[in-house]
Amino acid sequence: MTLDEMSLTQVREEAKKKLLGVCGVYKICDGDSMRICQGQSYGRPLGFGGVGSGASFNNNILALKKLKLKMKLIGDHFKADTKYDFFGKELSMPIMGASVSGVNSFGGEKVISEKEFCRSVVLGCMAAGTLGWRGDTYTYSLENSYGINAIAEASGFGVKIVKPREQDVVIEFFKKAEESGCVAVGIDIDGCGSYAMYTHKKPVYKKNSSDLRELVSSTKLPFIVKGVMSIEDSILAKDAGAAAIVVSNHGGRVLDHTPGTAEVLPEIVAKLKGKIRIIVDGGIRTGYDVLKMLAIGAESVLIGRDIVRAAVGAGLDGVRIQMEYLQKTLAKAMIMTNCKNLNDVDSEILL
Ligand SMILES: Cc1cc2nc3c(=O)[nH]c(=O)nc-3n(C[C@H](O)[C@H](O)[C@H](O)COP(=O)(O)O)c2cc1C
Questions:
Q1: Is the beta carbon of 137 within 6 A of some atom in ligand 1?
Q2: Ligand 1: which atom is nearest the Cα of residue 60?
Q3: Residue 91 lies inside a defined structural domain of this protein
Q4: What is the model's pTM?
Q5: Which structural domain, as residue segments, surrounds residue 337?
Q6: Could you report the per-residue pLDDT of 200-240, keeping only the tens digit for each?
Q7: pLDDT per residue as tens digits for the range 53-86
């Protein structure tokens, strides 16, 4: 079988063999306490699951599950148009690869190297017509910046999210990202509590409004604040000049007992729609989930853990297959809810 003939099921079967003891590659990936990923004890490295009880991870799934799609089937047939404009780049879909980093969380170099993981995400997403975002962890430095290198290899077709390190270090990363030609940069403000960064002596901090303003003015690229879970933070991010926010609880990995992202998204949208780009992630596994997030007001979404499984299963091709699957299921959901293009998607398609 060639890589081209591989199906998503086969990609995931491969991933399951390689992620033994780390991730069960279950049909439903929900952070339930019985899953392998949640079997880790307090005080141990996080692995692939959610922090603490896993409630935040699980709440992402539960919040999405509560939303239900309304079928509208009588009418002329059409091909759904999933095209999406992201800061002037035309993408094939409003779905991008999340800024996941740190292969040590899912088995380490014996499973996939950091370099190959970053290449798989960025180049695999690009092959599917969309953007791969790249993250930051304690193994990254300005000298070993795996994510930015992969973005440079893709001639800048990527987004770089830096941990909230010291201001001057973040700015240096942004400069390097700019040199790679990258589309946008940002910080994951929810990384300020990262135990992994702390134990590896890479300090991370809460950022105040003037820190954010300094970061905005340090770069000519659009600046993104990832990790927003409240109206208060979303307004402060906008007022500081951010071009986009990502409503995210980091896949439930940073603070136990937060709501699901689909629970807080509508109130943030009600306040800020049209004033800043609003992106969301957390528990999104199919195009049906994507459509639900768009229906409650996100303009696009990020995919985290499924991108890891795809990259581990079959590298760049695995990621491409994963993203194509998401696009196909989104297009199908749009036809069944009578949305010809993304402008047609609104809360009316929910019951
Ligand atoms: C193993 C792992 C590592 C992650 N590393 C980062 C990171 O370095 N930077 C970042 O912004 N987000 C990071 N995230 C969070 C993702 O970008 C994303 O917010 C989250 O995975 C979305 O939830 P999902 O996995 O349920 O799709 C990480 C997530 C996982 C699972």
A1: yes
A2: 26
A3: yes
A4: 0.97
A5: 84-349
A6: 999 999 999 999 999 999 999 999 999 999 999 999 999 99
A7: 999 999 999 999 999 999 999 999 999 999 999 9
CA of 254 to the centre of ligand 1 (A): 10
Answer yes or no: is pLDDT of 322 > 90: yes
37 belongs to a structural domain: no
Q: Can you give the CATH number for the domain in which 340 is found?
A: 3.20.20.70
Q: What average pLDDT does the structure give for the chain? A: 95
Find out whether the beta carbon of 250 lies less than 6 Å from any atom of ligand 1.
Answer: yes
Q: How far is CA 237 from CA 99, 135, 171, 212, in A?
A: 19, 19, 17, 7
Query: Ligand 1 atom 28: the closest Cα is on which residue?
Result: 100
Does some domain include residue 300? yes
Q: Which of 300, 227, 212, 289 has its CA nearest to residue 264?
A: 227
Q: What is the pLDDT of residue 202?
A: 95
350 DSSP 8-state letter: B
The 3-state secondary structure of 44-99 reads CCCCCCCCCCCHHHHHHHHHHHHCCECCCCCCCCCCCCCCEEECCEEECCCEEECC
Which atom of ligand 1 lies at the shortest distance from residue 29's CA? 26
- Ligand 1 pocket residue status of 284, Cβ below 6 Å: yes
